[in-house]
Structures are given as C-alpha cells and as structure tokens.
Amino acid sequence: MIPKEHDWGEMPYPTYGYKKFVATFGSYFDFKDQLPKTQNYDPTKSLKYNVLDILQNNLQDDFILNKSLRNIVNNLINKGFINTMFKKGSSILSYELSNKTSFCFPEDVNDEKKFSFGQLVGKLLDRNWHFAFSGFPDLNHNVFVS
C-alpha cells in the first residue's frame, strides 16, 4: 500500500525492504504518522522476530532464512550508526567510500585527555589530513566495531 517513491530515509528508525515487507526495530505505531495509507494497517500481517534467537541461529521459519534475518539485523544496525553520525551535523564530517561511509572531525578536538595517541586533524606539507572512523556490526562476535 505504500507508494514506491516513498522516502524511507525520513523514518524514525532504520528500515530494510524484504519482498513486500519492511524490516525495522520499531513497531507500526512508531511509523504510522510518516507512512501514507497506513490507516488500514492489519497487525496480523506483521511478523515479529526475537533478535537473540536470530543471533544464536535458533530461528526456524518458512518465510525467511535465519541467515537472511542476520543480514537484515546487520544492515539495520549499520544504518542506525550512520544515521546517528549524520545527525551530529557540522561537528562530524562524512566521506563516502566504495562500500561504506567514514566520518571525521572538521578540526582537532583532542586535548590529550580524550585520546592519548595524538592529533585527530593535521597538516603535512601542503596536505591536510583527518583521522577517520567508520563502524560496522560483527554479529558473529556480537560486537560493534568502530
């Protein structure tokens, strides 16, 4: 019922399209104001999955494989990290790489108390440099690597 041109980036939580469904960590009630034509929502057509069961490979379902659900959870966590970093505004700069987004500070904010290893932004000869970071979930070890 949702138009194809709908902007999913405006949702309060990250989303992931799967077949004719939308996967997210939120519920219908978190999205109903942003989605057109959702007044006819039928909760019996929603599927709920326990993330712990997915991470422990304990999920058995005829609709979707556990591996696919792990990939969806991975994607949602990654999108959540990126969205959070973009919300930092001008205090964090972003740079698109071939398969991920990296972030850096526009100026050196290190006062040696936060990071003991040195500068986060600098200049070498005629070139400026920035310490950049990115993040990704590692669901095999249940950690988020930055």
Give a brief outline of the structure.
The longest helix is centred in the middle third of the chain and has 21 residues, at 66-86. The chain has 146 residues and is of the alpha+beta class.
Report on the architecture of this protein.
The chain has a three-stranded antiparallel sheet, covered by helices on one side. It has a two-stranded antiparallel ribbon with strand order 1-2. The protein has a two-stranded antiparallel sheet with strand order 5-6. It starts with 14 loop residues before the first strand and ends with a strand. The protein is 21% helix and 22% strand. It contains three helices and nine strands. With 146 residues, it is an alpha+beta fold. Strand 8 (136-138) and strand 9 (143-145) form a beta hairpin. The chain has helices at 28-31, 51-55, 66-86, and strands at 15-18, 21-24, 93-96, 101-104, 121-124, 127-130, 132-133, 136-138, 143-145.
